[in-house]
Write a structure and sequence with these properties.
With 109 residues, the chain is mainly α. The protein is built from 5 helices and no strands. It has helices spanning 2-15, 19-32, 36-62, 65-87, 98-104. The radius of gyration is 14 Å and the shape is elongated. It starts with a helix and ends in a 5-residue tail after the last helix.
Length: 109
């Protein structure tokens, strides 16, 4: 039984990183089968999406194209690091802001 729970947690964790729709699906799946791993990665991806959205707005307001590219590359790197952790079934915090995401969104899970 714990193997199934572990697998489901890993599946939810990976699905959370597949666009906003994947994140919503992972959240719905998590509500019916709560796992620590699933909750961890749902919180990480929510943080990545919100920071990426805020930085994209800021970059467009500033209007300097290179800043937008830097933001997009930075968000891609954070996304890849989070996805790798989910695929490996590990709770790896993304650099710099991962711990804050876990604290800010602790109500999820």
């Amino acid at each position: 039984m714990s193997e199934t729970t572990s697998d489901n947690g890993k599946n939810i964790a990976v699905i959370a990183y597949i666009t906003l729709i994947g994140w919503i699906i992972a959240l719905i799946m998590h509500n019916s089968n709560k796992t620590e791993l699933g909750a961890f990665h749902i919180r990480q991806m929510l943080g990545i999406m919100l920071v990426g959205f805020a930085l994209s707005i800021l970059a467009s307001v500033i209007g300097i194209g290179i800043i937008s590219w830097i933001v997009q590359i930075g968000m891609l790197v954070l996304w890849v690091l989070g996805l790798i952790g989910a695929i490996q079934g590990e709770k790896k915090l993304i650099p710099v802001v991962g711990e804050q995401f876990q604290q800010w969104f602790k109500g999820i899970g």
